[in-house]
C-alpha cells in the first residue's frame, strides 16, 4: 500500500483554518446530489484540495474514508486542468456508496465545470 502523503503532497492540500476560510468567503459553487464543491482562485498556480466529509452525512468512518479516497484520486487525475484553484469538497446527505461509478461521474462533471468557470474568470 502506498503512503497517501507521497501521492498527495502538502503543496496540493488546503492546510489549516485560514486556507479553508479563504475559500468559504465568497466562493463559486458547483452542486449536485452527491457533492457541493466550493472553489476560489489562488495566486500559487497550483490546484489545492480540502475535504469536509461530514459524519452527519456518512455515519461510518469506513464510508467517509472511501469517499475521501475517491475524491483524492479523481482530483489527482484532473489536477492540471484545475491549476490556480483552491477547492473544498463537501459531502451531501443521502449519498449512496453502492453506486461508486455515479460518484466518479459526479466528480468528472464538477471538475469540468470548475475548469470552464475558472477559464472564464
Describe the structure.
There is one protein chain. This protein has 121 residues and is an alpha+beta fold. The protein has one domain (4-114): Ribosomal Protein S5, domain 2. It is 43% helix and 19% strand. It is built from four helices and four strands; from the N terminus they run ααβββαβα. It has helices at residues 4-7, 16-24, 61-78, 100-120; strands at residues 28-31, 35-41, 48-52, 85-91. A four-stranded mixed beta sheet has the order 1-2-4-3, sandwiched between helices. A hairpin with a 3-residue loop joins β1 (28-31) and β2 (35-41). It is globular and about 35 Å long. 22% of the residues are buried. The model has no long low-confidence stretch (mean pLDDT 88).
List the helices and strands and how they pair.
Elements: H1 4-7, H2 16-24, E1 28-31, E2 35-41, E3 48-52, H3 61-78, E4 85-91, H4 100-120
Parallel strand pairs: 3-4
Antiparallel strand pairs: 1-2, 2-4
Helix pairs in contact: 3-4
The helical percent reads: 40-55%
Radius of gyration: 14 Å
- CATH topology tier name: Ribosomal Protein S5, domain 2
Shape estimate: globular
CATH class call: Alpha Beta
Helix/strand order, N-terminal first: HHEEEHEH
Which consecutive residue ranges, at least 5 long each, have pLDDT under 50? Answer: none
The CATH architecture is: 2-Layer Sandwich
Strand order of the largest sheet: 1-2-4-3
User: Structurally, how many domains make up the residues?
Assistant: 1
Number of strands: 4
How much of the residues is beta strand, in percent? Answer: 15-25%
Mean pLDDT: 88
Instruction: For the record, give the distance between the C-alpha atoms at the N and C termini, rounded to a whole number.
Output: 40 Å
Secondary structure class reads alpha+beta
Task: Tell me the number of helical segments per DSSP (H or I, 4 or more residues long).
Answer: 4
Main beta sheet? 4 strands, mixed
Amino acid at each position: 500500500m502506498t503512503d497517501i502523503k507521497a501521492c498527495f503532497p502538502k503543496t496540493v492540500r488546503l492546510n489549516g483554518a485560514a486556507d479553508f476560510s479563504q475559500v468559504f468567503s465568497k466562493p463559486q459553487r458547483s452542486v449536485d446530489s452527491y457533492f457541493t464543491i466550493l472553489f476560489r482562485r489562488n495566486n500559487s498556480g497550483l490546484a489545492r484540495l480540502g475535504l469536509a466529509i461530514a459524519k452527519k452525512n456518512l455515519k461510518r468512518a469506513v464510508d467517509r474514508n472511501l469517499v475521501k479516497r475517491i475524491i483524492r484520486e479523481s482530483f489527482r487525475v484532473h489536477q492540471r486542468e484545475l491549476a490556480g484553484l483552491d477547492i473544498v469538497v463537501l459531502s451531501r446527505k443521502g449519498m449512496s456508496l453502492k453506486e461508486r461509478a455515479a460518484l466518479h461521474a459526479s466528480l468528472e462533471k464538477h471538475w469540468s465545470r470548475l475548469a470552464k468557470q475558472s477559464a472564464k474568470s
